Structure prediction request, 116 residues.
Amino acid sequence: MAETFRAAVDSVDAGQWEAATSLQINKWAFFKHVMLPQAAVNAIPGFGNYTIGILKETALAFVIGVTELFGEGKLIAGGSFKYMEVYAAVAIIYWLLVVAYSALQNKLERYYRRYM
Prediction:
């Protein structure tokens, strides 16, 4: 994930820093008002994809003993023998989480796209 943010910061043209220096803008104001909005445009898609990947892969955490959504579903299905219903509900919950996060990511992308 650090590579995503590093690449986003590197994508901002060096001329932006030169322009800020010539206008005597301090480093913090440059970062906040110039660098961050431009870098966010490039960082948000990669960050969002990485976050969605982590959300989908949380089921792997159950293997090492961390109880999470899929693990709870497995425990409930084992107790009630309703595997199809429980796994369908878990799948729908994962799907809703991904759709909600994707909508949020889309709004962030549109918000920061206005700086381009």
Remarks:
- The two ends are 23 Å apart (CA to CA).
- The chain has five helices and no strands.
- Residues 6 and 73 are 38 Å apart (CA to CA).
- Residues 83-113 form the longest helix (31 residues).
